[in-house]
Every structure is written in structure tokens, then in C-alpha cells.
Amino acid sequence: MATPYPAEWASSESVTVCGMGGSAIAGDLLSGLMAAQKGVPVRVIREFDFPFPIDPSSLIIVCSYSGNTRETISLFRQAKAGDARIIVAAGGGTLAQEAAEAGNPLLKIDIPGEPRSAVGYNLMLLLGALNKLGLWSITQTEVTASLEAIANQADRLAEDWPSRDNPAKNLAMHLHEKLVMVCGGGLFSGLARRWKTQLNENGKVWAWHEEIPEMLHNAVEAYGYRPQIKEDLSAVMLQPNLVDDPAAAHYQVAEQLLKSNAIPLHLVQPPEGLEPLGQLLTTMIMGDYVSYYLAILQGIDPSPTPNILLGREHLERLADG
What we know:
The chain has about 325 residues and is an alpha/beta fold. It is about 45% helix and about 15% strand. It starts with 14 loop residues before the first strand and ends with a helix.
């Protein structure tokens, strides 16, 4: 199959996704998907500098919705100086311009909206690149089934469905005015972060995420203390279908510890019969709708992110001296 990438890139032993905010979330989802399917290892960097020496035999994918994210541009320039294998995903800006000048493959992010609304689009761009390189494979049947499942899920969660028949509305009502802990493992490790960030940005809710089984080694120790906090706390557990035996045991223990400490727990699972990609995307959409309905319950427009913009303006002034 013809590919825009050099043939030796197909031998890449790992993938590093560089980005910030919504542009990095696709890397988290990719990491969970690859780990669940025993694929190429994927790590995500959210920094100005690489925390490790750049390996010329590793594939680096640099993502920025705007193409002007300072941290991401810095990482791109470092990767280029290290003679790395670089793919750029950007909507334009400085990053796209410098990638074109350097002759790096460019995946065009061509979708309107906010960076967080393009995560599914970005994930498919990354998967498409890995598929062309032979680092991951998927059948057209699985892609079609996943897209159909997404459409069905979106219809099921839409505004015109009443709360009693709409799982996203129902869950939003349970999470309203709560501190929310989102946990997930395996395929859904990165998805737990996605839910957390959507609750923050769209729902304007205090939320954090935990990974299973890691939370069993630290977070659970706090459950029996500070009962005044537990009154304001709710937990959301994201669980894939057909998890293997060790993972199933971890989920079971995490659920038991939450319930035994009287912490309200809401289990979220994808529709039955889906392959990993479909499970990931349908459960992601569930979180997107929950965050939207949480904003509506508060009488807030979910789209604007004034504090994020204010922080960016402060950083730009500091950087400009």
C-alpha cells in the first residue's frame, strides 16, 4: 500500500504524542486503545521540553488544534533538532507552517469548534496514520460499526429525550452540585481523563480522575475519612465490556470499596457487542453529553472558557517580557 511516510517508520517501536488540552486527549485515548489491543506503546507529553532523550527510531506525533500552542511548538522544534520521525496534526498556524517548511507529514485538522470538540476527529487521524504505517490495523467493518454506534448513542442522549429515558441527563442530575471522581482502567484509562476535562470545561464542575488498578494503591485509603466531604462527592466508574480476569477483579474491588464507604457510585458501560474502538467512542460521547447537561442544570453556557483564556493571556504577557 502506498504511504506518505518513509518505509523505515513502519519499524517504530513506540509512539509519543505531544500536545496540550484537548489536542493531547486523543493521545490518551490512543494509548488506552493500543494497550488494550497489545499494540505499539503510546505515551503522551504535556510539557515545554521532552523529559527523556529523543530516540530517532521512535515516532513522534505533534498535535495542536490551532497550530499556535507554545508548548507544542517547542516540542516540535526539539523533535526536529533530534532528527526524529515526526508527524504533525494541526489546523494551521505556526506549527503547520514550520512542518511544511521542514517537509514533515501534515495531518490537517479541518473541523470547526473548540479543540475539545475535535477529539474524536483527531483520534481517527492518528489511527489512520498508524494504520498506513502498519503499526495498527482495523477492518472497514469495525470502523463502520463504530460510526453507527456513535450515531445511535448521540441520538439516544439528545436533548429531545426526557430524563427518564436519557442516561446522560439522568447521570447529570445525580452529579449536579457534587465533586466528581472519574475512574477507569485498561481501554478506559485515558477516557477517565477525558471525562474529567469535559466536566471541568463544559460542566464547570470540580472533578478529577483516577486509574484502575493504581487507585487501589493510594486513593482508596482516603475513603473512610472526612465524612463531611463524602456528602458532596460522587464517583463515576467507566468500565469496558469483556475485561480480562485481572482487570475484572480490580474493578470489583474498587466498586466494593466505594460502596462500603458510602460513596455514591455510578457505573457507565458502553453498549453491548462493540469492538474496542466503538466502546471507547460511545462512552466518550456519554461523558460529553453529561458535561453539557451539567452546564445546563446550572444555567451556564458550556462553550466559553474564560479562565483558560485568561491564563493563556497571562502566559503570553510573561513570555513577551
